[in-house]
């Protein structure tokens, strides 16, 4: 999906106009969380999307994109409704740090027309194409380390999509649909392109579907076999190869033509000084689709593959288990260490050893590195299994009140299917013994865990407390009984111990 930052007027006049006009709220979602604004964003490459506007996520306080697909024929819409819902439910389950987030969707039926509204993440920093143009304009060359890091992030996302069950083919990967954040994080958008093409026939959409493939300037991103038969991962690999080549040379010259020629692509590839980079891009651009490598294989190519440092492995381990650690644990730990103390030493028989002290590590740099790892800038894909895996669930529904409906059709509700595989409960009484704080941690089978907490008064019954906590946990009925029994047991045991020690609680 192409999303560009709209031009804004300079000076106080521009600011006033933006605050009065562009920030005007035109519509709200049924739950009241998403507020559509007047300001438009470019959305020309997704078939069927009639309009895309900036919107505000009032819960998170960030800007998002409000997309609309219009149907003038309600009968056609009704015939496609189940297929549309299934497609959007699949999109809700796509969760990867290098893929533009799909937040929510709902259907809106009116007398004259029907529409599908869906909310996506807003990439305010612009597309990779815009970044490459700016870099070339400033007479700079592409840093090889940055090129490798970007390729790894894009391949990480493609490997995830292709290894889903069933596989998700992007089908619209260009430098316009890849976005770069200020911190170097790469995200690919328009993941729903192929799904839209398959689900929305031209006759069903209010305006004719405008397919990105028809734009001459991006024709060279599409594989020779594109649209000729059933698409597979090879069309994405070809598109990635063109993206990787453009990232390396900053721009593939069209020599005055509207479309980039095959000769221009060959010349750009030959201009690469690094033979490994040449081999890497050429393997993606092979004419025969079956000869192209997979995204997973490319992550092991010599130009990208490296043995991950212990620092990176430890950071991933820390991030993956952060729910077990207290907040600001890194900061607190570094404060308690003696800067002159030796944390590791490398000994050599024939020469003096090397000592690594705590003073050699900057806590600020460590915090930034952990944040980058958490955001997906340094994925651990080199050790990932190529075995297909089911599409993971999206995060559970937030506790939004449907009573604040502003448009006719309510948003669809999700059914919880995940299983609780482990439970932890912690109860701590205050010094006066007037109340107890309860923390419940539920470890789920998809690793998207849940933590709940509340204060308990002496008058609260263990059964009511357990029932209330389970109500907010969003778990299956089968797990509800199990968790409720576990909580009742824990609360009763705690109260027995408190009575035995002479506490009122």
TrEMBL record:
Question: Could you confirm whether the keyword Phosphoprotein appears in this record?
Answer: yes
Q: Which UniProt keywords are given for this protein, alphabetically ordered?
A: Cytoplasm, Neurogenesis, Phosphoprotein
Task: Extract the PROSITE patterns matched here.
Answer: PROTEIN_KINASE_DOM (PS50011)
Please tell me one Gene Ontology term that the record gives under cellular component.
cytoplasm
The places in or outside the cell where this protein is found are: Cytoplasm
Query: Which Gene3D superfamilies does the record match to this protein?
Result: Phosphorylase Kinase, domain 1, Transferase(Phosphotransferase) domain 1
Q: What's one GO MF term for it? A: ATP binding
Keyword Phosphoprotein in record = yes
Query: In what ranges is there compositional bias, type Basic and acidic residues?
Result: 1-14
A biological process (GO) of this protein is: nervous system development
Major localization listed first in the record, in broad terms: cytoplasm
Name of this chain's protein? Nuclear receptor-binding protein 2
Give the organism, scientific name: Seriola lalandi dorsalis
Q: What is the lineage of its organism?
A: Eukaryota, Metazoa, Chordata, Craniata, Vertebrata
